[in-house]
Amino acid sequence: MLAILAITGPIFALIGLGYACVALGLFQRSDMRILGRFVINLALPALIVSALSQRTLAEILRLDYLLACAGGALISFFLVLLWFFRVRGRGFQESALTAMGAAISNSAFMGLPIVIQVVGPVASVALALNMVVENIIMLPLALILADLAGQRQSSAWARLLDIGWSLLKNPIILAISCALALSLLQIPLPPALAKPIDMLGLAAAPVALFSIGGNLAGSRLGGVLADVGQVVAAKLLLHPFLVAVIALSLPGMDPLLQAAAIMYASMPMFSIYPLFGMKYGMEVFCSAAVVAATLASFASITVVIWLLHRLLLPPLALP
């Protein structure tokens, strides 16, 4: 267990540092959005290009991983959607936004720094595949259902075109496309370009974790504890369980990729979840869910890593 805490402890220490810096007034909470934009628009795309361009297409395009990742996320999404809509009696739009939080992980900001310590370089490949599932399947699905339920003036087709256009401009999608092209054509990055890209990529994890902590400062759980508790349980327990069932059922899947898929699914919901909630008047609920899931994930992720090393991976030794 001490070896596992050696992995998770520094991660949450950086989150705590970000929280403390904002709470003490060294940074403003609005500054965290700038840091987040740096990670999403520059550091993370650089990391993806650096990691994927050095691998073959056979190493990158893992259909078994995509199946486990997408299958677990979709089942989790629709189970939570039906639960809140049918059982809890919430509106369909509210249920769709809630289900989004239960099916889309904080893969980039929080997942990568943890997963890479457990499974090594394959974590970057898994991250890129997660980004494909989250940005091309899960996020558009949730937004389209929420818009249709809210009877927004734009048609489903118009909304789909808007999402498609935004995906074409998404830095992460562009980075994945560029890396795939370099891998397919077997074009190595020139040293003068590879070095700054590598340096940007190294900044992704610490800056992302710091910004998560800063965003948590000032957040409150509000009066939505019952619903928040249920969506947090779905995100931290149901989602990784479903991914694990699919991943472990696929014959011939690399154990490292199986572990990566399960760990990414074990992360709390993505940190910009409240921004989508704001659009539909659910920012209080979404912010509370992010805070609660991030705090609870310290225990849940530690347990997941322990289980993986007991059942799937070699024993973990202290560094």
Q: Can you walk me through this structure?
A:
- This protein has 319 residues and is mainly alpha-helical.
- It is 80% helix and 0% strand.
- The longest helix has 29 residues, at 283-311.
- It is globular and about 55 Å long.
- The mean pLDDT is 84.
Shape, principal axes of CA atoms: globular
pLDDT averaged residue by residue = 84
Low-confidence stretches: none
Number of strands: 0
The percentage of residues in β strands lies in under 5%
The major pleated sheet works out as:
none
Q: How many helix segments?
A: 14
The residue fraction in helices comes out at over 70%
Radius of gyration: 19 Å
Structural class: mainly alpha
Distance between the termini: 13 Å
The helix-strand sequence is HHHHHHHHHHHHHH
Supply the key terms.
single chain, 319 residues, mainly alpha, 14 helices, 80% helix, 0% strand, globular
How are the secondary structure elements laid out?
Elements: H1 2-23, H2 29-52, H3 57-60, H4 63-87, H5 92-103, H6 107-119, H7 122-149, H8 156-168, H9 171-185, H10 191-216, H11 225-249, H12 255-265, H13 273-279, H14 283-311
Helix pairs in contact: 1-10, 1-14, 2-7, 2-9, 2-10, 4-5, 4-7, 4-11, 4-12, 5-7, 5-11, 6-7, 6-10, 6-12, 7-8, 7-12, 11-12, 11-14, 13-14
